[in-house]
Amino acid sequence: QVVLVSGHLDSWDVGQGAMDDGGGAFISWEALSLIKDLGLRPKRTLRLVLWTGEEQGGVGAKQYYQLHKENISNFDIVMESDEGTFMPSGLGFAGSAEARDMVKEIMTLLQPINVTDVYDTADGTDISYWMRDGVPGASLHSDINKYFWFHHSQGDTMTVQDPNQMNLCAAVWTVVSYVIADMEEMLPR
What we know:
By secondary structure, the chain is α/β, with parallel strands linked by helices. It has helices at 18-37, 59-68, 97-107, 128-132, 147-150, 163-182, and strands at 2-8, 45-51, 75-80, 88-94, 117-119, 137-142.
């Protein structure tokens, strides 16, 4: 059984792609790194996917889906960060009402950093195939007021990233992925 965390490595034809979507790739990597550094071993596999080809029609995600869809019942949740890694506010979630209630409970663990909201939909080009077929999905919600200042521009460089905000995004990703991976049962479909 798999809990998938992800971001994509490709960017547009200008800039460095640090925010879109290097930040999402980084916090996904960091989540697994933190869990390992803490010596935690969840009941399910945590899998990091660094998608490619998202800007070219999602070809990387489509190929991954084609290669793994026969095991779709083993995917507990698919998570993608693709809207910047600014100050986080919560998660977008797609799944059953029962699963949503469980995710809302998990998000209460993030009250100390004031990131507890659960929004009605999850966004993510790379995880859309899975969600379409009923796998619960989650996307990071952060303050996107400045997102389009840099999106697909020469300004999308490492200077856009705020290390403190990225740490908070990584904390959200870490807590949610670990708790779901360590629950007794998979999220209900």
